[in-house]
Amino acid sequence: MSDVAKYQRIDGSRYRRIFVVGDIHGCLQQLNQALSAQHFCESEDLLLSVGDLIDRGKDSLSCLALINQPWFACVRGNHEQMAIDAVRGQNVERWLRNGGDWFYKLAPADEALARELIAQADELPHIIEIDTHEGQVVIAHADYPLSHYSCGQAVDAYEVIWSRQRLEDSKAGNIQPIDGAQRFFFGHTPVENVQQFANQLYIDTGAVFDGRLTLLQIQ
Fold first, then answer.
1. Which residues are catalytic?
2. CB count, 10 Å around CB of 90?
3. pLDDT, tens digit, for every residue of 103-126?
4. Region 182-206 average pLDDT
């Protein structure tokens, strides 16, 4: 993994509505149901993901293929990173322990597709910044580990993908806002209900753990 996180900026004015979704983890049916309930329009709306498209659920390959949809944008989660590492022969056992066994059960044609998609996932940003009608929104998988946000500033990619320290601190009562943007959306750590601390929202509500998939409209 690169030591420095990659950023992507998106112009929110190009879209009628913008939604952000929590960790999908192969739960394609839940995602489709949530989008259908919102009458999501692929030609006018945008869906942003906090990452972890794959592993544990039954439709990992189809969920990973979402990265090629023009109405979808995603940051890299730790499960995408584990897949990227494993297909390079690094930390395979770690991925297997965390739900990566689906990859090794694929038929040859599907495995080839999965390898291609995982290579594309290696190009995913760690951080997405988007301007909405309500203000600037930042999407990252686990954390933005600085007290001030600025697009392009150097930030540790590992912390962005893996860190739970800010959430643990917030739960303990040490709540710190991040200035430089209006709202931050994170996944990574399953929570029973959406948790908000200052301007940070945690939206992985455990879809793959018999919870539900959170879909929020931010424009």
1. 79
2. 12
3. 999 999 999 999 999 999 999 999
4. 98
pTM higher than 0.85: yes
Give the pLDDT mean for 52-77.
Answer: 98
Domains (range + CATH), the chain: 7-75+125-217 (3.60.21.10)
